[in-house]
Write a structure and sequence with these properties.
Blueprint: E1 8-11, E2 14-17, E3 21-29, E4 35-46, E5 48-52, E6 56-60, E7 66-68, H1 71-76, H2 83-93, E8 103-107, H3 108-128, H4 135-147, E9 152-154, E10 161-164, H5 169-176, H6 184-193, E11 195-199, E12 206-210, H7 211-219, H8 233-244, H9 250-266, E13 269-273, E14 277-280, H10 291-316, E15 317-321, E16 328-332, H11 335-341, E17 351-355, E18 364-368, H12 379-396
Length: 400
Amino acid sequence: MDNIEISGFELGVETFSLPSNKCRIKKYDAEDGTVRVNIEKITDEPLYYSFDGINGLCLTTKYGSVRKKNLLLEMASLNIKDDDLLIHFLEENGFFFSIQNGVVSFSLNDCLNILYRIMAVTELISELGSIKPNIDRIAFSTLYLLLSEKIELKSDDSEKIFFSSPLHESVSIINQSSIAVNTDYDTDEAAEKNTYTIKDTVYSETYELDAEDYDSIISGEDPWHTNPENTDIRYRKLASVFKTNHNLNRNSRRIVDFLFHYMYEVGVVKNINYKTGIEFYKTPNKDLLNEKLQRALMVVARIVVANEINTVISRSVRPFFSADTLDTTWRSTSLHAALLFSLFYMHPGKSVFKRCANPACNKYFSVSSTNGRRIYCEKKCRDANNSRKHRLKVKQTPEH
């Protein structure tokens, strides 16, 4: 690890150390047709942070006074359609990872996807803690964290990997698996009852999978051009793992089972992008996201959130005890990990994140889990939205 100056300040009872500075970020078009960003640390503008038991990670002055509360929820509330706004957040609050003096270049898409992954985690925590969770949002954020392209953030002049996105064990197994060939037992089973009996965690202890459908999927053939999803290598591997790999640990098996049933019944995911959404091979049938599949989704969402947070924090955050001062502190090598670590200070289970119900606001706010009726971040948003609804009602009322 590079030698870096640590700055930490006490806020409440916790001290936190994170090396960071303001930075300049400029976009440019690279020769390969991609958009990249040059990032330059502003050496004479260091940033200071502390944790608060209510507001999580805060930006402070040099002497510990709070300048800006709850960086995580501020970041999660940003408009994902405005790249410049996202870049400005990093300029003012520090880049995700410690960079040395000089200019470092990264893929803009990789930087944005790191932001999106934090947003997806925040979205999931918000919805999982809600009295009436939005199933579509949970499904999208869960699938995004599981199936989006792996990020490996590297500068253009170095082999150093600043960040590699967490990949759940189940997804690694799917990606690395080969497509199983049917055995004589499979052939006999299909001939006898036209299905394969599969151990399953979604519907019951076993699931009867249509043998003809399964054989068509793993063959990768679409002779009548009616099932283009059967040519998708990830879907074919997923089906194979679902049918044949029963040695997975329980959480990995739950993810495999959910992903297979979701794609087999609702729709096969071709691509997924946090800004543009999910691209399916065919129009998805969301009516088939039934109660049992929804329950499986809720379990998988929790597993995925835990994997993302635990993996990131274990890489970059550690406790430190000073022999000189006999003081305790937390140290982090990255703002990325510190943002997720702030969740530990925000009383999960006792408080929840909500997105403001005012369409013109879209900000997240933290509220006690017992105050489930509150839907606005502040009074002015409630008043503004009520006025908007009144104007709309008046406009729609026919004149006599």
